[in-house]
Each structure stands twice: as structure tokens, then as C-alpha cells.
Amino acid sequence: MATRRSVLGDAHVDRAETNKSPFDVDFQRFIVEGAWGSVWSRPGLTKRERSLITIALLAAGGHHEEVAMHIRATRNTGATPDDVKEALLHVAVYAGVPAANSAIKVAKDAYAAMDAAAAEGGKP
Prior knowledge:
78% helix, AhpD-like
């Protein structure tokens, strides 16, 4: 859970925890243990590297809400907009232009929301 909080932020994790129900409690446990406890906590890659890989894979799969969430998480992982731009160029070559095109729109919207929130003194 500490890794999840360090990447996604306390506000996101608190919302997810508050919104848990008997229907998805097992799924939430699976995410925490599998993704955050096992994969994201391994020593082989930095959080920045994992962030870029995650964004590229989510973009390739067309998982737009998750792309936006992980774009917002870049403020905690150290991945820059230029890093993300390069990753999405790879998506275009290896997963297709439509996947990258959609992800670029999602990323632009997420960065715009982050910029607007920062201008207001908060985080989205």
C-alpha cells in the first residue's frame, strides 16, 4: 500500500479505499498485492521507468481512464511530459497510430487539468 500511495497519491488511494464494496474488495486486494506489492515494489526498475512502461502498455490496450490516472501519477514518479511523449511515439510504432492518437489526447487533457489545478494551488 505504501508503494501505491507513493505513486498514485494519498487522495486517490483514500478514494479507492472509501469506495470499496463487498463486490470489489477481492479485486482491490489483488491490485494492492499483485500490482503494487509485487511488481511496482521490485528493485529492478525505477518508478519513472515503471511509470513509462505502464503508460505505454495502457495506451496500447486502449485503457484511457487508466492512462489518465498514470499521467497524473507522473508528478510522483518523475516521468516528464517529454518522457511520456517519447513512450507514446513507441506506442504508435508498435501498437498502432490510433492507440497512440487516443492516448495523446488523454495525456493532453490530463496535463491540462494538472496545470489548471496547480495554477489554483491544488492537485487534481
